[in-house]
Structure formats: C-alpha cells, structure tokens
UniProtKB/TrEMBL annotation:
<dbReference type="GO" id="GO:0048511">
    <property type="term" value="P:rhythmic process"/>
</dbReference>
<protein>
    <submittedName>
        <fullName>Protein EARLY FLOWERING 4</fullName>
    </submittedName>
</protein>
<comment type="similarity">
    <text>Belongs to the EARLY FLOWERING 4 family.</text>
</comment>
<dbReference type="GO" id="GO:0042753">
    <property type="term" value="P:positive regulation of circadian rhythm"/>
</dbReference>
<dbReference type="Pfam" id="PF07011">
    <property type="entry name" value="Elf4"/>
</dbReference>
<keyword id="KW-0539">Nucleus</keyword>
<feature type="region of interest" description="Disordered">
    <location>
        <begin position="1"/>
        <end position="31"/>
    </location>
</feature>
<dbReference type="GO" id="GO:0009649">
    <property type="term" value="P:entrainment of circadian clock"/>
</dbReference>
<dbReference type="GO" id="GO:0005634">
    <property type="term" value="C:nucleus"/>
</dbReference>
<dbReference type="InterPro" id="IPR009741">
    <property type="entry name" value="EARLY_FLOWERING_4_dom"/>
</dbReference>
<keyword id="KW-0090">Biological rhythms</keyword>
<feature type="compositionally biased region" description="Polar residues">
    <location>
        <begin position="1"/>
        <end position="11"/>
    </location>
</feature>
<feature type="domain" description="Protein EARLY FLOWERING 4">
    <location>
        <begin position="27"/>
        <end position="105"/>
    </location>
</feature>
<dbReference type="InterPro" id="IPR040462">
    <property type="entry name" value="EARLY_FLOWERING_4"/>
</dbReference>
Length: 111
C-alpha cells in the first residue's frame, strides 16, 4: 500500500499507509490534532456564512436599526477571520513540528 492519499469511491481523500510506517503521515496524534483543528475552522466558517447572510438581509432592509446591528455583525466577522488565520497557523506549526521531529529522529520516507 502507498503512503499517499487516494480517492475513495465518494471522491474524498482517504489516507493509506505502509504497515510499520512511523512517519508524520502515519502519526495518529498529528492527524487527530489536524482533524480537530479543521473541524474548528469549519465551525467558524459556518458561523461566518450565517453572519454574512444576516448582514446582507439587514443591508437590503434599509432599516436604520438593522444597519446599526451590522456594525456588531461585521466586527464579529473580522474577529472570526482572525480566529481562522490563527487556527491555520497553529495547524501549520503542529504539522511542521511533527514532521521535523520525525525526520530529526532518523525516520525518512525511504526507511
């Protein structure tokens, strides 16, 4: 079996690894952390989608009170964008650290 992700029948990537492989691709802790982070990102992005829809509805209504509400909604959107950036930065660091740790311990793809 290959260490490369493959498409399964539903078009999603499915991870395959060699038996005995201990590289980053086969490290369940790394993948668990990344999976948790991707779920957090998706939750924030889903919230942003709802916020954007509400901002658009408020804007189309042209009601002064709704326009005022948009200020807080847009501020929340901006904060959420910062959260997503932070989550992706953390994921990058997690993956990079695990990769460098495995390779500094002498594990390579050719082992």
């Amino acid at each position: 079996m290959s260490n490369k992700p493959r498409n399964n029948n539903n078009g999603k990537l499915k991870h395959h690894r060699n038996e005995g492989s201990d590289d980053v691709e086969g490290n369940p802790d790394v993948w668990s952390t990344l999976d948790k982070s991707f779920k957090q990102v998706q939750t924030v992005l889903d919230r942003n989608r709802a916020l954007i829809q509400q901002v658009n509805e408020n804007h189309r209504s042209k009601i002064a009170d709704n326009m005022v509400k948009n200020v807080a909604l847009i501020q929340e959107l901006n904060g959420n964008i910062s959260k997503v950036v932070s989550l992706y930065s953390d994921m990058s660091s997690t993956f990079s650290s695990a990769f460098h740790k495995q390779h500094s311990n002498g594990h390579t793809r050719d082992d």
